[in-house]
Design goal:
The protein has 11 helices and 22 strands. By secondary structure, it is α/β, with parallel strands linked by helices.
Length: 486
């Protein structure tokens, strides 16, 4: 990869991360990129009319997205070559009733999502982002719109307690996530003054509607959240606070993702787990199908599937434990044949790369890694192994991924958790067991996993992108040479 092209991949990742504070925004950004590359959007509620040599995508819940490119030589029963990742990250999500008033402060009630390093959320400049349902009335008829929202400026903070009031804090800090992890939005006094100004119609969010003040609706319809927060959201959305029917928001760090380090070798960012793998796989698919001839000799279907809710077990309508993947394989196959047996053939000819960030060796905690399995930053993608199937890798799938690396001179590493430590898991075993697809678990190495601010290496972004792109281009040729169940 040329130096200029390598830089473009990294700068493109930074742009993707900064545009994606939530899974909803990540899917929206993915949609923009796919449309720009000529991918056609499909709707799961409608019939699909697919053609060989064309590219498509669909979303579910606007937090999961599946994109695929059908080879020009594809016939029903041929395989799918899939890279799967996830769009969600540990975070603090607003509760259905987020309005909390304590000690003269307006606080925002949040619930923990996933297994976050919650102490890293203290003393950060926070905002909110997510989606809302908005009521819109036109010509006497009412409709309800799904809209994404993001307040750019810092509006909240979770302050630490001064050391003078907890002298033992450095001996072990453990916050009570119910009582001590609430972001402060404002003081009650300032909020009341703001409310009075708003009711007098002298701020943009307090606009008049039919002789009625905008926040009159808020008082009657949205008492579950602070009116100040609703005013900020409404101003951002260009609607009245009372038109906001429902919220699905999360707290977000406002510090942007950057290339950093004395040698500019690192990326410092939130949500690297797992937007880094989501981005690399998506860009690899787009670039592997960008030319007119890229699908000319392809016999299979190249696919990327980015799921929501991995961090809490994948058991949702849009998680990897749902029917999203199987439905996608089935609908593509059935578009080219009415023979129900073709799907079974296709699954056995398919291959999944489960891509989720991996644990890099930490120089201050080297004893946490198994002696012979210490993935390094800059060392390339990590193949994850676990005898108890917490990862879905086996000898065959590991060989395939390693062989592609060898052919393209890409570095590759291995990871096994210590026997005296529990092992995490991924979407790999979930999809391998539910779909029956051959699977390898891999991921780029990173530090500070599940912190509000993580880090990985610039080189590994390049390696990951190149490896996924090579997988799409090479797999059908390599798979034809592999014999197992004969």
């Amino acid at each position: 990869m040329a130096k200029e092209e390598s830089y473009d991949v990294v700068s493109d990742l930074i742009a993707f991360l900064n545009a994606s504070p939530t899974p909803f925004h990540a899917v929206e950004e993915a949609k923009k990129r796919l449309r720009s590359a000529g991918f056609e959007q499909l709707n799961e509620r409608e019939a699909w009319n697919l053609e060989a040599g064309k590219t498509y995508f669909f979303t579910r819940n606007h937090s999961t997205i599946v994109a695929f490119a059908i080879g020009k030589r594809y016939v029903a029963g041929n395989g799918f070559y899939v890279v799967g990742a996830h769009t969600d990250s540990p975070c603090l999500k607003l509760k259905p009733v987020s309005k909390v008033v304590k000690g003269g402060f307006l606080e925002v009630g949040v619930q923990t999502y996933g297994g976050g390093l919650w102490h890293t959320w203290f003393d950060r400049d926070l905002t909110v982002a997510g989606r809302v349902m908005i009521r819109e009335e036109k010509g006497g008829s009412v409709s309800y719109l799904h809209q994404l929202v993001r307040i750019e400026e810092p509006i909240m903070r979770i302050p630490n307690l001064a050391i003078h009031l907890d002298r033992n804090v450095n001996e072990g800090f453990k916050a009570n996530t119910q009582t001590q992890l609430l972001p402060i939005l404002a003081t009650s006094v300032k909020a009341e003054l703001n409310k009075e100004v708003s009711e007098n119609g002298s701020v943009e969010s307090g606009k008049q509607s039919g002789g009625k003040k905008a926040n009159d609706k808020t008082d009657t319809r949205n008492t579950k959240h602070h009116s100040l927060l609703l005013q900020l959201l409404a101003s951002n959305l260009g609607c009245e606070p009372g038109d906001i029917c429902e919220l699905e928001l999360q707290a977000c760090d406002t510090q942007p993702s950057i290339v950093a380090g004395a040698a500019k070798e690192f990326i410092f960012s939130g949500r690297l787990d797992n937007l880094c793998m989501s981005f690399c796989s998506l860009k690899a698919l787009i670039d592997a199908t960008s030319s007119d001839s890229s699908l000319k000799e392809e016999t299979g279907v190249r696919m990327v599937a980015l799921f929501d809710h991995e961090e809490c077990g994948s058991n949702s309508a849009q998680g990897a434990g749902s029917n999203v993947m199987l439905n996608a394989l089935s609908r593509v196959t059935n578009s080219f044949s009415s023979d129900s047996k073709m799907l079974e053939k296709a699954i056995q000819r398919s291959f999944l790369v489960s891509a989720d960030m991996a644990h890099a060796l930490h120089p201050n905690y080297m004893d946490k890694h198994e002696e012979n399995h210490q993935p390094k930053l800059h060392g390339g993608l990590v193949i994850k192994h676990n005898a108890n199937q917490r990862y879905a890798t086996n000898a065959v799938t590991s060989f395939v991924f390693r062989e592609i690396a060898s052919k393209h001179n890409l570095p590759i590493q291995d990871f096994v958790v210590r026997n005296d430590m529990p092992c995490g898991s991924t979407i790999g075993p979930i999809l391998a067991s539910s779909v029956g697809i051959r699977t390898v678990d891999v991921g780029a190495p990173q530090l500070s996993m599940h912190s509000i601010r993580e880090m990985c290496a610039v080189d590994d972004v390049k390696h990951s992108y190149e490896h996924f792109k090579a997988f799409f281009l090479e797999f059908s040729h390599l798979d034809a040479k592999i014999a197992v169940d004969i």
